[in-house]
Amino acid sequence: MVIAQWNDSLATGVDKVDTQHKEIIRMINESHEALSQGKGRVHVEKAIGFLSSYVVDHFKGEEELMAKHDYPARADHVRQHEAFLKDFTRLVSEYNTGGSSSALAINFQQSVVKWLVNHIMKVDKDMAEFLIAESGNKVA
Ligand SMILES: [Fe+2]
Prior knowledge:
Number of helices: 4
Distance between the termini: 35 Å
Order of helices and strands: HHHH
Oligomer: single chain
Number of strands: 0
Structural class: mainly alpha
Helix content: over 70%
Bound molecules: fe (ii) ion
CATH class: Mainly Alpha
């Protein structure tokens, strides 16, 4: 089951950011599938491991862009990233102690997907608007 899907309303207009968001959505679906189908631990850990390291790198990339362009709302944006990583780490440790469960799969869906969509729609779009105004959509 696909739990998150890319659509144009998620586009920020910054190519690099949008490409990474698409990849994150793909990895979320893969991780959720592994969790909800009760796949083996190795499979789930691999999917979640890829997702979490990709997300960490992606956040770093956004944070570097914001620093480089002196984005005024940077501190709030970084705080959101940190809060997400804390929640995500908690979910991973719940999995590590309790294994796959439907409750965990639902929790994953609600917290990860909802957070991501809300974050992209508001916080990332605000950031992108600023960056594009500064240097066009080939922001680097
Ligand atoms: Fe962000």
